[in-house]
Specification:
143 residues, SH3 type barrels, 5 strands
Length: 143
């Protein structure tokens, strides 16, 4: 089945760009122009709606495409869950530093002081000597 004949001009151009990119024939696309899971599902639905009834898509092709879509969905969900878990762990760990002496690396400079306050969220920060520093900059913690 000729996929390009079943897609609109914009979808066909996007699909061709992805194929060329995968084959190394073109420069990388700017973000926001990549095909996502919704685009993949739209292409699959378009294929099914416009297929020739006398030559239906082979079962193997359909199953492979559905498996790809399922894998894409699961990877997207897993990535989101890992990001949420990472943020929760960081927020939990940073609360243990409250009132403790820390050493912070800021470029070539090393800052020593006590943690007076903390901020929660995906990018927690600690207040040391009146300045907020990223949690990731802490290199040493002391009682």
């Amino acid at each position: 089945m000729d996929i390009e004949s079943t897609l609109g001009a914009v979808d066909a151009a996007r699909l061709n760009a992805r194929i060329e990119k995968g084959a190394g024939l073109s420069a990388p696309e700017p973000s926001g122009q990549e095909l996502g899971k919704d685009d993949f599902l739209q292409i699959l639905i378009t294929q099914l709606q416009n297929q020739d009834p006398t030559k239906p898509m082979e079962d193997r092709e359909f199953i492979a495409q559905m498996a790809q879509f399922s894998s894409l969905e699961q990877m997207t969900n897993l990535s989101r869950q890992f990001a949420d878990l990472s943020a929760a762990i960081k927020s939990s760990l940073v609360t243990n530093f409250l009132g403790k002496e820390v050493e912070i690396h800021q470029g070539e400079q090393r800052i020593h002081g006590f943690v007076d306050a903390i901020t929660a969220g995906p990018f927690p920060q600690v207040l040391v000597n009146g300045t907020y520093y990223d949690y990731d900059r802490i290199s040493k913690v002391s009682e």
